[in-house]
Amino acid sequence: MKIHMLHNAPVRMSVFTALASVPLFGITVWYFFFRRVSGRPQRVTKRVKGKPEFPIEYNLTNPQVLPHLAGRLLSVACRVSHSFIGRAVLGPDNIRKGNYDVLRKLEIPEEPVYSPSQPFDGPAAVAEGDCPVDLDKLIKIETTHDSFHLNSISDYYEAYRSGKITPMDVAERAIKAIEDSEQLSPKLRAVVQYDTEEIKKMAKASSGRYQDNKPLSVFDGVPVLIKEEIQTVPYHHRIGASYLGKTPTNEDATVVQKLREAGALILGVSNMHEVGLGVTGINPSKYHGTARNPYNLDYCCGGSSSGSASAVAAGLCPIAIGSDGGGSIRIPASLCGVVGFKPTFGHVSCYGGAPNCYSVLHIGPLANCVRDVAMTYAMIAGPDTKYPGSLNQPVISLDDFEKKDLTGVRIGIDWKYFRDCSTEVRGICENALLFVEKQGAKVVEIQIPELQEAKAAHSIAIAAEMLSGDYDAFYNHLDEMGKDVSMLFNLATAFTATDFVQANQQRARSLKFFKDIFEKVDCIITPGTGKTAMKIQKADLQYGCVNVDMMNSFMKFMFLGNLLGIPGLVVPIGYDDNGLPVSMQIQGKWWHDNTVLRIGHAAEGFLKKRKPQVHYSLLT
């Protein structure tokens, strides 16, 4: 009897299991094959073409998606981000938490605009033409008795013409200064490639021209550094990475060619954040390391043009060239206390730059004063047949540059946006704004619509464009890549083609809003960055670091300039309690770069400059 029961129990159990599995199987089939997951009903807000929703509300958010990640923690997080769970769950979740999915909830009627290029009034510039500005008239040494003086183009030009010093003397001092900066603890790491023989060859030729009283231009013999992202003969075009630029480049970028033809003393190439994808300048690459802030070597320079800003602030050169896809000139200039200028989109040829972020990329100068960035901008701007995006532009003018009386100039301030920064930065910027008002300018209150939507549009556009331009690096050199860069590239893969189209639809809306704003004002002023420079932790140097809060603070006032292609200038205006620089940003209407520079020239008089902790003078 017992044997009979034991024999039948499995039979009854198997029948029960079979019957129970039928609905379970059905539910499984329904869940994975028939349940609707795409196009599920959701609330969609329909925008009205060309009009913001009223009342206009300040909607820029500061999400804390991730804690500060560095060292082993960052390495683990990076590994997880590339896993199935990371790609399927964590990436989309970070997009939601970062509010980068805001455009997915909108129906935008505008047609997408994939380039911010704008028409202009007046005559068009001619390709291959000479610099239309008489730069000799802009030579002027500006000093104040209570402010530290940083050498300018005018200082070098006058010293050479007077015979007090020669370009060869300066070249030898520059080489010694670069070598000395590498002996500091920690190293400055502003310059990552230089060739002493190449420098001396250029210096010798320049010295001979001054001896014959035939300098090529005011730039003849003036030391310049070029961001490694921009092709410069005879250096490797590594773009801040160990896996790129295996052989030296054999062609100068257009901006480098123009400076070389003007006689500039090109010292080499400057450090940068790996592939330009970061705002701290912290770079774990074996060829690069991390550029340090000359005001305090324990703090970051910002990125991605970190070495360019560090070199100018440290006195290694009065001018450096950078590039800017999301603040990469203006962020490091702000954090290092120098002037950084992003000209109107298309004003300066990007030929020979890194082949990515096409619709947001600008090349421009960093210098010690607004006069020098204005002169450098005039020299490097203009149409270039090798770069079609630069062909349609007006003739450059700096006619009003010397007019520091700002009577009649209307300055737009969105006060909620302006004050969304640290207490120290806000206070210094408000005082600097009062100084600008005393020069005659009138403050006009404005409201900038749809800031969060514009921020998302910029993030999607630059992420998609950079990933498409760095496919080989992402797919074939992932293990050699800094973990912070690897995670950002991976996040970019979570954006869709629809996201990219909507981002450019939002670009069209924001372009219309800013055209309306610029009918009322001549420029818009904000802080440069929301916080001053970040202190570098030891763990940050191993794999890089991810600090979402700092990234949001550094980029908060930057993304509009790249999305819309308007000119932007950062000018140092003070220092926080740690002695770190604070800057103010001036942005203007397309092709009105002269107005932006003129206002900046007046505004920089507010600052009493302090000597950085690390500084070299090549003239004394």
Structural overview:
The protein is an alpha/beta fold. The protein contains 20 helices and 17 strands. The chain has helices spanning 2-34, 71-81, 84-97, 153-162, 167-181, 196-211, 254-261, 306-313, 330-336, 370-380, 415-418, 423-438, 451-469, 471-476, 483-492, 497-517, 540-543, 548-555, 559-564, 593-603; strands spanning 45-46, 69-70, 106-107, 191-193, 223-227, 265-270, 292-293, 296-300, 319-324, 339-342, 362-367, 410-413, 442-445, 523-527, 545-546, 568-575, 581-588. The strands form 4 sheets. An 11-stranded mixed sheet has the order 4-6-5-9-11-10-16-17-14-12-13, sandwiched between helices. β16 (568-575) and β17 (581-588) form a beta hairpin. The longest helix has 33 residues, at 2-34. It is globular, with a radius of gyration of 27 Å. Residues 1-6 have low confidence and may be disordered.
Determine Rg (CA atoms, Å): 27 Å
Low-confidence stretches: 1-6
User: Overall pLDDT, averaged?
Assistant: 94
Counting DSSP E segments of at least 2 residues, the number of strands comes to: 17
Spatial sequence of strands, sheet with the most strands: 4-6-5-9-11-10-16-17-14-12-13
What share of residues are in beta strands?
A: 5-15%
Largest sheet data: 11 strands, mixed
Give the overall form: globular
Assign a percent range to the helix content. 25-40%
Number of helices: 20
